[in-house]
Amino acid sequence: MTEQNSSLRVRTRFAPSPTGFIHLGNIRSALYPWAFARATGGDFILRIEDTDLERSSQAAVDVILEGMHWLGMDPDEGPFYQMQRMDRYKEVLAQLQAAGHVYPCYMSVAELDALREKQMAAKEKPRYDGTWRPEAGKPLPAVPEGVQPVLRFKNPQGGVVAWEDKVKGRIEIRNDELDDLVIARPDGTPTYNFCVVVDDIDMAITHVIRGDDHVNNTPRQINIFRALGKEPPVYAHLPTVLNEQGEKMSKRNGAKPVTQYRDEGYLPDAMVNYLARLGWSHGDDEIFSREQFLQWFNLDHLGRSAAQFDEAKLRWVNAQHLKAMADDALAALVAPQLEKRGIAAADLADGRLARICALFKDRCDTTVALADWALVFYGAVSPLEAERAQHVTEAITPAVDALADALAGCTWDKASISAAFKQVLAAHGLKMPQLAMPVRVLTVGSAHTPSVDAVLELVGREKVVARLRNR
């Protein structure tokens, strides 16, 4: 897109191939076009590039849609599926052919392989040599019988293809380095680079923000745009996301599906925050809300170097968002996890869950960890034998029994529970940790919790007294 039409309404797209489960590296490539559309009041389009029939699957499409919905990145238009647009591609292909931009090539696979071997032996770049390219005064070979040709795009000769990349700066590729691209297979099926251009034209895409593994496709696509009489969009090619071992993040290298992070208790806003920082920055800001991100985002602060995924950092970012989240909102996320673990929805309707979340959220980094704590308030408790042996000793049992008796009859609030502790400590000549540790182990299964009076109040009198007595 040229500067004079850059005032058009921004339209961006995310165009994944459903050939495997979408991971964080892929979704980062969706985050920036989504954010740019939202930040500028534009439109974000989802396009599923499913022409690889052997490797595409509905299950992979479902993970794309689920993952984007979970992250709050729903598209304004789409999903559009390339396989449903074949008639449109063939229509444009016929237009290009009629205008002389496309020609049939009958070179067989064996001939192409032999040509490449010869070029590589001569230390030349392997490429199609234009045998079937029609030129004025050039005789073409005889058409072989029974061979269905591929269709090749007549790439311009001489000059350069250049664009101002919003991440990489000016890029220039000499046309002579590009051979004539196959844009339709022998059965007439159009190929990737051609379909992408037709889609971007039909969907009026103004900005293509994608991974830098597409840089080599861009000059070819720009030439097809121009052959169709259209100006190409603005391009921004994002650096790769590396995994923790420094390799390109991929399914082969152990990357997890995006939806697995949802199941592991990460918050969508924390994921957006973390992913935003994998290739973009706003000063030194590390923790920010979705609203702040969309207010600040532009294409001028995209990083040029590869970003490395760090799960410990992601957990830290998640913990910060979890701490800042409203207790009722957290309880709404924890409740379904408790129901999955067998706690009845009716048991969760007593209003305690939001208060439990308030008490424990500072020591948790995922909602799963928070649900682990909340479970002891609703289900059975099984203290670790090592903790029980260390803290619940014979010497302390008289004080535990005395506390159970005191708690059975006191008013059930934090102040009264605290007073009952003080009374028992004084009567038995103990310090608070000597009694609080075994009480915690017996009532919630761990010696380390927030304030013991607050914890016991939320467990409830009946369970507390029973757990102290039935040790």
Automatic annotation (TrEMBL):
<feature type="short sequence motif" description="'HIGH' region">
    <location>
        <begin position="16"/>
        <end position="26"/>
    </location>
</feature>
<comment type="subunit">
    <text>Monomer.</text>
</comment>
<keyword id="KW-0963">Cytoplasm</keyword>
<dbReference type="GO" id="GO:0004818">
    <property type="term" value="F:glutamate-tRNA ligase activity"/>
</dbReference>
<dbReference type="InterPro" id="IPR004527">
    <property type="entry name" value="Glu-tRNA-ligase_bac/mito"/>
</dbReference>
<keyword id="KW-0648">Protein biosynthesis</keyword>
<keyword id="KW-0547">Nucleotide-binding</keyword>
<dbReference type="InterPro" id="IPR008925">
    <property type="entry name" value="aa_tRNA-synth_I_cd-bd_sf"/>
</dbReference>
<dbReference type="GO" id="GO:0006424">
    <property type="term" value="P:glutamyl-tRNA aminoacylation"/>
</dbReference>
<feature type="short sequence motif" description="'KMSKS' region">
    <location>
        <begin position="248"/>
        <end position="252"/>
    </location>
</feature>
<dbReference type="InterPro" id="IPR049940">
    <property type="entry name" value="GluQ/Sye"/>
</dbReference>
<feature type="domain" description="Aminoacyl-tRNA synthetase class I anticodon-binding">
    <location>
        <begin position="330"/>
        <end position="470"/>
    </location>
</feature>
<dbReference type="Pfam" id="PF00749">
    <property type="entry name" value="tRNA-synt_1c"/>
</dbReference>
<protein>
    <recommendedName>
        <fullName>Glutamate--tRNA ligase</fullName>
        <ecNumber>6.1.1.17</ecNumber>
    </recommendedName>
</protein>
<dbReference type="InterPro" id="IPR014729">
    <property type="entry name" value="Rossmann-like_a/b/a_fold"/>
</dbReference>
<dbReference type="InterPro" id="IPR020751">
    <property type="entry name" value="aa-tRNA-synth_I_codon-bd_sub2"/>
</dbReference>
<dbReference type="InterPro" id="IPR001412">
    <property type="entry name" value="aa-tRNA-synth_I_CS"/>
</dbReference>
<feature type="binding site">
    <location>
        <position position="251"/>
    </location>
    <ligand>
        <name>ATP</name>
    </ligand>
</feature>
<dbReference type="InterPro" id="IPR033910">
    <property type="entry name" value="GluRS_core"/>
</dbReference>
<feature type="domain" description="Glutamyl/glutaminyl-tRNA synthetase class Ib catalytic">
    <location>
        <begin position="10"/>
        <end position="316"/>
    </location>
</feature>
<keyword id="KW-0067">ATP-binding</keyword>
<dbReference type="InterPro" id="IPR000924">
    <property type="entry name" value="Glu/Gln-tRNA-synth"/>
</dbReference>
<dbReference type="GO" id="GO:0000049">
    <property type="term" value="F:tRNA binding"/>
</dbReference>
<dbReference type="InterPro" id="IPR020058">
    <property type="entry name" value="Glu/Gln-tRNA-synth_Ib_cat-dom"/>
</dbReference>
<dbReference type="GO" id="GO:0005524">
    <property type="term" value="F:ATP binding"/>
</dbReference>
<keyword id="KW-0436">Ligase</keyword>
<dbReference type="Pfam" id="PF19269">
    <property type="entry name" value="Anticodon_2"/>
</dbReference>
<comment type="similarity">
    <text>Belongs to the class-I aminoacyl-tRNA synthetase family. Glutamate--tRNA ligase type 1 subfamily.</text>
</comment>
<dbReference type="GO" id="GO:0005829">
    <property type="term" value="C:cytosol"/>
</dbReference>
<comment type="function">
    <text>Catalyzes the attachment of glutamate to tRNA(Glu) in a two-step reaction: glutamate is first activated by ATP to form Glu-AMP and then transferred to the acceptor end of tRNA(Glu).</text>
</comment>
<dbReference type="InterPro" id="IPR045462">
    <property type="entry name" value="aa-tRNA-synth_I_cd-bd"/>
</dbReference>
<dbReference type="GO" id="GO:0008270">
    <property type="term" value="F:zinc ion binding"/>
</dbReference>
<keyword id="KW-0030">Aminoacyl-tRNA synthetase</keyword>
